[in-house]
Write a structure and sequence with these properties.
Length: 423
């Protein structure tokens, strides 16, 4: 049996992590023999400012703010499915923030339309990108209702399945399937890290990389503080050794974050700049990495590359990195494309203990890794995990981050072993 795929999701060129995930998933699904066609019913929150191309089906455009638009698209999807020879699998890429209707129940409404149609030519799946251990009343109601309306639910982490089968969700395990986030198909040897470094004026540098759309939850200011502490403790100002190390922060702010949360955006940007200043670091902001000059690298500790990178550049950045630093603040984050990609490229990852990292970088214990390295044993860990502190477990431990950086920066053998273990 062959199938048609229709994903209901955000999609490039709109700048959104789920859009990128959807693009990558459809690219890989096209390679599966049993897939007849792939299409997207795009959830557009740009008020029509973005022009979408194939595989977006423009008959199924959704205005993210208008519930009637969601419902109209659901009916159109049914009509399209009934016109096809093969069954259609409709995959709802679910993120609470994509539903911008006043009621906040658009996903439930379209899932109900699909279920009530009772068509043998339509299969509805729900792919959850966020699973909250302590949801509010609206969030709990949404997931519970959706679980009864769709044919199955997929989650990118085993922990998410454990949460959903327990209180307060109580969703039967039989309705859940764990499927790893996955990465873009590639041969890590096709990109030479040294050539990439030379291309961008970063030759002979140990690159610590934080990549992705910026927001407060990414904890970049904490990463800067830890990096600053590392520099202050181990390097003399303007020494050659110090110039061999660089912290590359690559990615712009999510457009919706700037538009919808201007106060939080300013707070986030101020925190980054204050961290740079208080840490005594030198930093430069650039929009085009190809115009980065050698003196820019030599005269700065931090390079902030503010651009939404295309797939080619993303691969180059991952390939060139020596260490991936993910100081994320949301302990419940069950899905991180940046984490998955870094691991897929065989890079040693230093991350806070958010849900996806705990699963992917297990066991993540720095003390054990140090003992194993000192005794000459093979390292067993797939990454280094750092505690989140505070009442709400949302503050990365800067001292522990610094300790993790010290271990990876000064032990190339550890970096290599951890990268191999992760991949």
């Amino acid at each position: 049996m062959r199938f048609n795929i229709f994903e209901v999701a955000s999609y490039p060129p709109a700048r959104c992590g789920i859009g990128t995930y959807t693009q990558d998933s459809l690219t890989e699904l096209q390679c599966v023999d049993r897939i007849n066609s792939v299409s997207v019913a795009v959830i557009d929150s740009t008020h029509g400012r973005v022009n979408y191309n194939t595989p977006v089906d423009k008959r199924t455009m959704i205005n993210a703010y208008d519930r009637s638009s969601w419902n109209k698209t659901a009916i159109t999807l049914l009509d399209i499915a009934h016109s096809k020879e093969y069954p259609t699998c409709i995959i709802l890429q679910h993120e609470f923030g994509l539903d911008k209707t006043q009621e906040g129940d658009a996903y439930q409404h379209i899932a109900k339309i699909f279920k009530e149609a009772g068509s043998e030519k339509v299969i509805t799946l729900l792919n959850l990108h966020t699973v909250l251990r302590n949801p509010n009343e609206r969030q709990l109601k949404s997931i519970r209702e959706l679980s009864e309306l769709v044919d199955g639910i997929t989650v990118p982490a085993r922990l998410a399945r454990d949460i959903l089968t327990g209180e307060p969700y109580n969703i039967p395990n039989s309705r859940l399937k764990h499927i790893d986030h996955g990465i873009r198909m590639h041969d890590i040897e096709e990109i030479n890290p040294d050539e990439v470094k030379e291309k961008y004026g970063l030759s002979d540098r140990c690159i610590i990389l934080t990549l992705g759309l910026k927001s407060s939850d990414k904890g970049i200011d904490f990463g800067i503080k830890a990096y600053g502490k590392l520099i202050k403790t181990h390097f003399i100002k303007d020494s050659l050794e110090r110039k061999k190390l660089v912290y590359l922060i690559a990615g712009e702010y999510h457009p919706n974050f700037i538009e919808n949360e201007p106060v939080e955006y300013k707070k986030c940007e101020d925190a980054i700049q204050i961290s740079i200043k208080e840490s005594g670091l030198r930093a430069i902001k650039i929009q085009n990495i190809e115009k980065l000059k050698r003196e820019d690298v030599e005269n700065n500790d931090v390079i902030i590359f503010e651009k939404f990178s295309d797939e080619t550049l993303l691969k180059e950045l991952y390939a060139s990195a020596d260490i991936a630093l993910l100081p994320y603040r949301n302990i419940e984050q069950i899905s991180s494309g940046n984490l998955a990609e870094a691991v897929g490229f065989g890079k040693p990852v230093l991350a806070t203990e958010f849900a996806h990292a705990r699963e992917l970088l297990y066991p993540g214990n720095l003390k054990i890794a140090k003992k194993q390295l000192k005794s000459g044993h093979e390292l067993e860990t797939r990454g280094i995990l750092v505690k989140l502190k505070g009442k709400y477990k949302n503050l990365p431990d800067v001292d522990n981050l610094t300790e993790g950086l010290e271990f990876l920066v000064f032990n190339e053998n550890a970096r290599v072993q951890i990268g191999k273990n992760a991949r």
